[in-house]
User: Fold this.
Amino acid sequence: MSRPTALITGGASGIGLAVAEHLIQFHGYRIAIFDGHAGCGAEAVSTLDAENCLFLQADVTDYDAQSKAFVHAFEWGSNRLGLFFANAGVGDGESLYKDINVDEATGLPKPLTLRVIDVNINAIIQGINLARHFFLEKNNTRGGRIVVTSSSLELYPAHCIPLYAASKHALVGLVRSLAPVYAKDGISINALDPALIETNLMPAHLRHLWDREQLTPLSTALKAFDVILQDAKLTGQTMELALGNVILKP
Assistant:
């Protein structure tokens, strides 16, 4: 039997890379990494099992690029896609607290650049819809798994990064709303909600504020994937990752 194929956005570093390695080594997957960072992507393929790992470089907010990545991953994976891990994410970028940047011509605030919404919500929704298409219309056997990287900030307020928190709050509503409907077609969808975890998304100037024992290790995300892959009926869960614990919150 051929290996199942997974497509991971933001898979060249952090949680995405750790999950890619775990899926190859312990669950027999082939991994298509979709990431905007060419250097990290090439390095990821060289450190993983190159025979079972493919790197596709593009901006996840570019719908044409994301759709082509799905096609490429599907064909490379022997015309079957088993798992979509929507993991790419960014921080706020803009501030709702600093002095307002006013357009002198109109006297009104200039529009905010909301890349955090484009990456953390819009691109994920597009990716979920693409995954559903391949699961239902392209696979020989209908169905598949979707996992979304959210954050524990989908559960709690975050005054210092409100736009990021808002994007993660939106994801929990999306996952919980889609789950019972998608289940009828054999598609599961769950969200990972990591607490403070040391990845590239954590600003370097903030890392010294916490002792390492206060950080959630990447291995906790791997535990969550083990739980998901061992139970085909598990869906609609927001899985809080806190230190070494995986806490299911339906």
Remarks:
- The chain has one domain: 5-249.
- Strands lie at 5-9, 30-35, 53-57, 83-86, 144-149, 187-194, 238-242, 245-249.
- Residues 5-249 form a domain with the Rossmann fold fold (CATH 3.40.50.720).
